[in-house]
Amino acid sequence: MARPKITIYTDGAARGNPGPGGYGIVLLSGPHRKELSEGYRLTTNNRMELLAVIVALETLKIPGSEVTIYTDSKYVADAVEKGWVFNWVKKRFKGKKNPDLWLRFLEVFKKHYVKFVWVKGHANNPLNERCDQLAVEASMKPNLLNDEGYQNALQ
User: Fold this and answer.
1) Rounded to two decimals, what is the model's pTM?
2) Is 32 a catalytic site residue?
C-alpha cells in the first residue's frame, strides 16, 4: 500500500519575544485541507514555530506517512535537516533551549517520513501567509493557554 503523502505548512508568532504567541498550521492531503491554531499567554517565537510542527505531526492519523513540512523557521528546519537535534539529545540538551518540545517532536517525528523545506517568510507564499495569519490571530485571542514548558524553564 502506498504511503499517504501529506503537505504541512506551519508558522509561529510571538508579540514580544517572550510575549503572547501562537501557531498556525495548514494540513493538505489529497482533496482535504485542515487548519489549526492555538494561542499562549507567555512564550517565544521559536517555541511556537516548533510547537506548530509538533501539533501538525500529532494530528496525522496514519503512521508511516510521507510528510513534507514547509516552515519559515531556520531554527526548526536546520535543527532537523542538518542533524543538530540528534546531537543535542546525545548531550542531553546541555545549553540548548526547548528540550521539552524537542523531545516531544522526536517522539512523533520517528513515526513518519518527514522532510523539511525552508521557505522565506512574508514572501507572498499564500499558505505560509495563511499560517502567519492564523498564528497572529491565535496570539490575540482571549483566554490564552499557559506554555507550561516555557514557564517551568523560567523557574
Assistant:
1) 0.96
2) no
Does the active-site annotation cover 112? no
Q: What is the pLDDT of residues 60-98, one digit of tens each?
A: 999 999 999 999 999 999 999 999 999 999 999 999 999
Count the domains in the chain: 1
- The CA distances from residue 100 to 51, 95, 146, in Å, are 10, 13, 14
Annotated active-site residue 72? The verdict is: yes
Q: What is the CATH number of the domain that holds 121?
A: 3.30.420.10
- Strands of the 19-29 sheet, one edge to the other: 32-43, 19-29, 5-14, 66-71, 113-118
Q: How far, in Å, CA of 127 to CA of 100, rounded? A: 28
| Residue range(s) defining the domain that contains residue 145 | 5-154
